[in-house]
Amino acid sequence: MEQKSYYKNWYVLTDNAIVETLCKSIKQMRLNRNISQEELSEKSGVNRITISRMETGKAINLMTLIQLLRALEKLELLNYLNEEPEISPMMVMEAQKKLRKKASPTSRNSNPNDYGL
């Protein structure tokens, strides 16, 4: 039996093919957990008919996707969508230049008597 790759070249797929692939994946997650559409509906708050339509490749909205992933305990998949801003080396250098190198001899709360003056 051939091992199927989890990595797809998403760029060669049409938008509809991507939706269909994601919907099939969510269905497979449900089946792997051995829960019915009705049970998933109860856990997620998503109508069973919506789940059925989704599993046949009909698009769902982002909120529904999140509700289903939460019910399937697969929210960690969203980590791949959470991209942090990149910081350029120049920005790092500029930030380091702005860091204080020394303490100032006086501060707004200092008293001249503190320095023996």
Automatic annotation (TrEMBL):
Residues 104-117 have a biased composition (Polar residues). Residues 98-117 are annotated as: Disordered. Residues 26-78 form the HTH cro/C1-type domain. Coiled coil: none annotated. One of its GO terms (molecular function) is DNA binding. SMART domains: HTH_XRE. It comes from the Bacteria. This is Xre family transcriptional regulator. It comes from Flavobacterium aquicola. The lineage of its organism: Bacteria, Pseudomonadati, Bacteroidota, Flavobacteriia, Flavobacteriales.
